[in-house]
Design brief:
Bound molecules: zinc ion
Radius of gyration: 23 Å
Number of strands: 16
Shape: globular
């Protein structure tokens, strides 16, 4: 514990940062701002400012955060002692006075381990810097017996931690299925999982902070922090199934049962359509998942353009009420570019245009992610940054 003056710190609380996810669970439940909350908030604000803006002097930090220079000095001293911030020499000074010492996030001082469990053949893992750059990769085949999944994931995580070559800030995991805010996978049909405490199991195994979220919810965080997405964005993830992650006002939406974004089994249209694995007819997933599209394109005499256009239109029909209700500015597509990028995305734009209010929603952007196949690994890193440092 530091001997930070909590009284002064409490009085000097910076306004909430617009883009912050908040310092997480603890703050949201507090009705009264306690000194320790103010301190956590201010620490996050300093780290967030350095994360996005890079090295600056303590005076710059005070200006950027709205905190007093005394508070900044205390916080920076504490963050240096904790190994999150380093001094980086001085800036050439043009005026009189001694040159300012620059401080920055110690981007090399810690590593993050990310896991992507969404693949049908391999679980992917990476060691990442605090900037989301991947410095090492390991993967493992998805076991045939679902009973072995937890052991395979643990072994993969341990191999990554051993390859981190720096203290590991935490382990982020993007998992298929519905995941609650404690990292319990409530249901993941592909794994045969119900109420599996993945976060707890990995934490017990590794002795490190672990954060688990649904894969599409992880992906939208990568798009937000590293992909330049705005505060009101929906990311559609097309793979074995179809899911989405949502941010509204810069906050991840979880929903009443942690199933926000589960759009795959919403039926689209009243004209029938393919039968879905869930038993219903015309689910979005039955039109749009990679296997569904692959099967439709492989039909003898299939018109590729028409199949992709129809799938894109169905996606637009499903998304239009969401865009309208939440006033989204951006739809980001993540999945096989050869399927999504082109006729499909164009048809989605057209369907959205004809089905939403022109005055507000004509400008809704539909684009492919630039995060590629690493989007969930990088999103898992953002979960750790956000959960451990309040940085996003
Ligand atoms: Zn279905």
């Amino acid at each position: 514990m530091s001997d930070l003056d909590l009284t002064r710190s409490a009085a000097d609380v910076a306004p909430l940062a617009g883009r912050s996810f908040g310092a997480g669970r603890a703050l949201r439940h507090a009705s009264k701002v306690l000194p320790e909350h103010a301190r956590v908030h201010n620490r996050s604000l300093v780290l967030q400012t350095l994360f996005h803006q890079g090295a600056m002097s303590r005076a710059d930090l005070a200006r950027e955060t709205g905190l007093t220079r005394v508070t900044i000095s205390d916080l920076v001293a504490e963050l240096i002692a904790d190994g999150y911030v380093i001094e980086q020499g001085t800036r050439e000074s043009s005026g009189p006075g001694k040159p300012a010492i620059l401080v920055d996030l110690d981007r090399e001082g810690h590593r993050i381990v990310g896991l992507d469990l969404s693949g049908s053949e391999r679980f992917l893992g990476a060691v990442l810097t605090l900037d989301g750059e991947i410095v090492a990769r390991h993967d493992a085949p998805v076991p045939n017996d679902p009973a072995d999944i937890l052991a395979v994931v643990s072994t993969l995580a341990r191999a990554l931690v051993a390859d981190a070559h720096a203290p590991v800030l935490g382990v982020g995991v993007g998992s298929p299925g519905v995941v609650n805010d404690r990292g319990v996978v409530l249901t993941a049909p592909n794994f045969g999982w119900t109420d599996i405490d993945l976060e707890g199991a990995l934490h017990a195994e590794l002795g490190l902070p672990v954060l688990v979220a649904n894969d599409a919810n992880a992906a939208v965080l990568a798009e937000y922090t590293f992909g330049g997405a705005g505060d009101d964005v929906l990311l559609v993830r097309v793979g074995r199934g179809v899911g989405s992650g949502l941010l509204a006002g810069g906050q991840p939406l979880r929903g009443s049962r942690f199933a926000a974004g589960e759009i795959g089994h919403v039926t689209v249209g009243t004209d029938g359509g393919p039968v879905c694995v869930c038993g219903k007819v015309g689910c979005l997933e039955a039109w749009l998942s990679a296997p569904s599209l692959g099967a439709a394109l492989a039909e003898p005499g299939a018109d590729r353009e028409a199949v992709l256009q129809d799938a894109g239109t169905r996606l637009g029909i499903a998304l239009a009420p969401i865009v309208g209700a939440l006033d989204l500015s951006e739809i980001v597509l993540s999945g096989p570019p050869e399927l999504l990028d082109g006729a499909l995305a164009a048809a989605t734009v057209e369907a959205l245009r004809t089905r939403t209010l022109a005055e507000f929603h004509d400008g809704v952007q539909v684009r492919m992610t630039e995060q590629g196949e690493d989007i969930i690994l990088r999103g898992a890193a953002v979960m750790v940054l956000s959960g451990q440092l309040g940085v996003s």
